[in-house]
Automatic annotation (TrEMBL), chains A, B:
Domain AAA+ ATPase: 47-276
Tagged with keyword Flavoprotein: no
Family membership: Belongs to the SIMIBI class G3E GTPase family. ArgK/MeaB subfamily.
Alphabetized UniProt keyword annotations: Chaperone, GTP-binding, Hydrolase, Nucleotide-binding
Protein name: Methylmalonyl Co-A mutase-associated GTPase MeaB
Organism: Actinophytocola gossypii
Amino acid sequence: MSVDVDGLVAEARAGRARAVARLISLVEDESPHLRAVAAALSPHVGRARVLGLTGPPGVGKSTSTSMLISAFRARDLRVGVLAIDPSSPFSGGALLGDRIRLHDHTTDPAVFIRSMATRGHLGGLATATPQALRVLDAAGFDVVLVETVGVGQSEVDIVSLADTTVVLLAPGMGDGIQAAKAGILEVADVFVVNKADRDGADQTVRDLRHMISLGRRETGPSWRQPIVRTVATTSQGADDLVSALDAHHDWLVAHGDLARRRATRARREVEAIAVRELRARLSGVGGGETLDRLATRVAAGELDPFTAADELIGEHRYQR
Amino acid sequence: MSVDVDGLVAEARAGRARAVARLISLVEDESPHLRAVAAALSPHVGRARVLGLTGPPGVGKSTSTSMLISAFRARDLRVGVLAIDPSSPFSGGALLGDRIRLHDHTTDPAVFIRSMATRGHLGGLATATPQALRVLDAAGFDVVLVETVGVGQSEVDIVSLADTTVVLLAPGMGDGIQAAKAGILEVADVFVVNKADRDGADQTVRDLRHMISLGRRETGPSWRQPIVRTVATTSQGADDLVSALDAHHDWLVAHGDLARRRATRARREVEAIAVRELRARLSGVGGGETLDRLATRVAAGELDPFTAADELIGEHRYQR
C-alpha cells in the first residue's frame, strides 16, 4: 500500500482532522511507514505546549480535560488531546463512560481528541504516545494534553514526559495522598483539588500543602507547586488553573528547564526505540532459536539466566 | 564486602529463613553478587510448584493466600510467598493493612513470606521477581505463591509466569468482569469467586461461566477453567481450590505443558536480562554521551527519533 506521507503531513498542517487521525494510526500501528512519518514530522515539531494530566480513578480527569479544552478554546488556542487507556484487564471498563464527556468538543475543528488504547503491554503505548504527540505538535496544535488514568507507575512515566504535569486529587482521598506522597511529589508541577465544593476540600489542600513542604529541596531555584481548586463540572477554577499552567511555563522558560525537559523526553524516546529494536533482534529470526535453546537449558537448571543472557548477546555480536 | 554465596545457598536449603531472606535481598538489590547467586541456585531449581494469584483490589487476595498457606501446611508442604507490591503512586497505601493477615503464618518455619516492593518501575520487579522465585525454589519450598494486586497489565504479566494462575473475583464486580473478560480469560487457569456467601455470588459464577464459554477455543485439547467458590475468611472452599490446583497441575504434566510453560518463563527471564544489559550499555559510559547528543538534535527537530536510535545502535556496534 502506497502512502503519500508528505502529502498527509501537509494536510494535517492545513488543519484537516482526517489527515491527523491517519498519521496517528500510522505511528500507532507500527506500519512500514512509521519511519517515513517520523522523518516527515521532524522539522515541524517543538512548538506545542505539552501538558500531562493524571490522578487516581474517579477524581474527574476527563471532566477536567474537557474544562481545560474550553478554557484554551476561549483563548483561541488549538487543542490536541491524547487520552491514554491502558486497557488493564481489571480497569478497562470504567473509562469508556468518562470519555463521553469529551465528545462535547468533537464538532470543534480546532480540537482533536484521540483515545490511545492498548490491549496488553504499556510498552506499546510508551512508544506510540510520543509519536502521536509529535503528530499533533507538527500539525500545529498549540496545546497537547496527554491524559492518563494514572493507576500505575507506567502511566505516570508517560504523563511525566510533559512540559507541565498536573496531578488531580479530590476530597476524601486523604489516605491515598499519604500513601502516594513520594510518587506524586516527583511528577507534579501543578496540583488540582477537583470537586472543591465537597466536604473535606480544605483538609485535602492542607494535606497537600504539608506534603509539599516536606518534599521541598533547599538547593537551587525551585518551582513552588501551586494547589488550584476546581469544580470541573461547572468550570469553576478554570482560569486559575490556566494561570498556574502559564506561570509554570514561564518559569520553565526563564530557568532553561523547558529545553532540558524536552531533551529528556527525546532521550527517553530514542532510548526506548533503540531498546525495542535490540529486543526485536534478540527474539527475531536466528535470535529466537538461540533464545529457545538457552531457555530450555535454564529451565532444566543447566544454566543460570544471566550466563544465558550473556551468551544470547554474545552470539549476536552485540558486544561493544 | 565478601559474601559466601555457596554457604548461603546450603543454609537456605537446610531450611534457614535468614539465609533465604539474605539471598532474596541479594537478587533484589542487584548486588555485585547477583550473578554468583544465580549460578549457585541454578542446579537446585525446577522442583517447586509455582502458583500465581491475582485479581482486582478488594477481592480478598491476601486472605486467600493465607487460606491457601494453611491448606498446603495441612498437607505438610513447605510454602514460599512472594507478595508483589507495585507501590504505584496511587495504589500504595491500601495494601499494607491486607498484608497483616499473612502474619498469622510468620512463626511457622515452613512458611516464608516476602513482600517485593518497588518504588517506581515495575521493570525492576519484572526482573527481581523471577530471581526471588528461583531462591525459594532452590531452597526447597514445595509451593511458591506469587501474589499481585493485579491493577495493571504488568502485574498480570508477572503472575502469569506461574505454572497455574488463579484469578480471584467477588460478587458485585459484574461490570468489572464484563470490561475485563478478554484479559482475564487469557491468564486464568482457575477462577475463584471469593466472598461466595454474599448476595450476587451465583450471578458472578453465571457471568464467569458465560464468559468462559465464549472464549473457548475449538482446536486441541483445552483445559476447562474451573470456578471455585470460597469464603477465604473462614477457609470455606479451601479443599475445593487445592483440588482444582492439583487437577490443573496434573493436566499440565499429562499434556507436556508444564515443561513448555517453564521454558517460556525462562525465555522471558533471559530476554529481560539481555535487554536490560543492552539498555545499560546504551545509556552507560560513552553511550550516555552519544544519547544526549542525539536527543538534543531530536528535540531541536534536526533528527527524527528512529534515525537517532539507528545511529545510537550503530555507534556502539550492536549490529548483527
